[in-house]
Write a structure and sequence with these properties.
heterodimer, A: 290 residues, Rossmann fold, Alpha-Beta Plaits, 14 strands, 32% helix, B: 269 residues, mainly alpha
Chain lengths: 290, 269
Amino acid sequence: MSIIEVTNLTKFYGKSRGIVDVSFSEEEGEIFGFIGPNGAGKSTTIRLLLSLIHPTSGSAKVFGKDVVTHGPEIRRDIGYLPSEVYYYEGMKVIDLLKYSASFYDCDCTQRLHDLSEIMELELNRRISDLSYGNKKKVGIVQGLLHSPKLLFLDEPTAGLDPLMQRKFFNLIREENARGVTVFFSSHILGEVQRLCTRVGIIREGKIVEISNIRALQQNNYKKVSVTAEGLEPAAFDLPGVTNVQTENGTVNFFFKGDINAVLQRISGMQLSDVTIEEPTLEEIFMHYYE
Amino acid sequence: MNATIYKHEFRARLKSVLIWSLALSLLIGIFFSFFAVFADEAELVNEMMQNFPEELRAAFGLDRMNLASVLGFYSLIFLFAQLCLAIQASSYGFGLVSIEESELTADFLLSKPVSRSQVLTSKLLAALTSLTITNLVVWVASFVSISLFREGREYEPRTLLLLLLSILIFQLFFLSVGLVVSLLVKRVRNVTSYALGLAFGAYILNAFSGVFGDVKLELITPFRHLDSAYIVQNEAYNTNLVLLNIAVSLVALAVSYWLYIRRDIPSVS
């Protein structure tokens, strides 16, 4: 069964565009990555699925139920971590989490303490005293507290240090292993690649590509940079090589295709340096802009 | 109705309720303690009043109040109490959902498994409970002040009850109108300025009625619907205006539900 099913969903805020004609679906147990630059419509899509905003046209179903008519029922099994976390400033962390838990029929006390321990959250501090990263941790615990079946993560790692990011990703993987479906929105390709099985790319409110993460990587350019004495650009005259530039004995180029072809070519050379990099997000987007 | 939201909302407003209640009881108590002086020098007071310009007396309803009688004097205090109650109720009305949106906690609340109408009902009931506490404090303060300072003078308790019973519908008007306005404008940036505007605006419409010529603008303000001088003078409500007051409140509430259920919650941008 599809957990999320979005059909021709369109949202305009007055005249300004939110998303246009977006369709996709997510299966149970999947981690679906949703990538796009700022303002592309990632948050709009999530907010529509949570019925915080109402669609201009089109429809969306979560757990097989329409989000506009069955909102409260659907949200019982949803956990949401917004990109910007704002909570009642005067409350203590523990009170906020208890308030949050009181909306669900569960005794979440044990889980509250377990999650807080994993995320190293101090429960007795006031929300207003917390740094951005710490507020984000409150958001994570709050989103996972009631053991939801579907998680919406909207740029979840912003503000977390690398150690916390790793703990967070482990937590998400554990949840996923228990069968939790995850909708992961981000503009950082690296973290999407680490976690997701399938991705959708959204640009200017429209879905430009939905594909398997492997396929996306294979279809993508690698950035190769080779430094060697007396190196000629002609040495990399291979199919799939583009954008060759030479600079102080270093040859830079983009490569798309089977990377072994390049490695075989390089293995015969006496190199002083070589790097093969993932393209940055901008470069991926450039690819889709063409 | 959702008990969790109700409790949270009620607690968030508790401090404000206590401050308003304290301020109102001080206002009523201190002001009414001067009654003895006014009553003893009734002629002098009435003579002094004659010296004020007619418009000023009309603005405070003084032309229709006998400050030498218990309820005549009380009705002047009640007018000021009404002004405070109006500011309090409108600020609760304007803030009911808008504070949640401007402080961006609406996302948290509305991503919970509750419907919009449940959220609004719980919030409204919590605000009404808060207003009722202030209301009850005004009752107690009024009875205590009158019995302490009336100097043995007689008054009609039934009329006092009429005045005090009017508080609830008076509060409901400002709560619901504040709420509907907050949902009609795009964003309420400052609850206090909106609340002061609505309360003073409504007061001034009544105080300077007649300024607008034939257009009876004062008919839309609760200060006219529940005019304390009128109630004391006639020992009754102006039934039509009270019904109008209740009707406006109910329409405002109905429209608020309609708007809130369809509302797009603004996000950070």
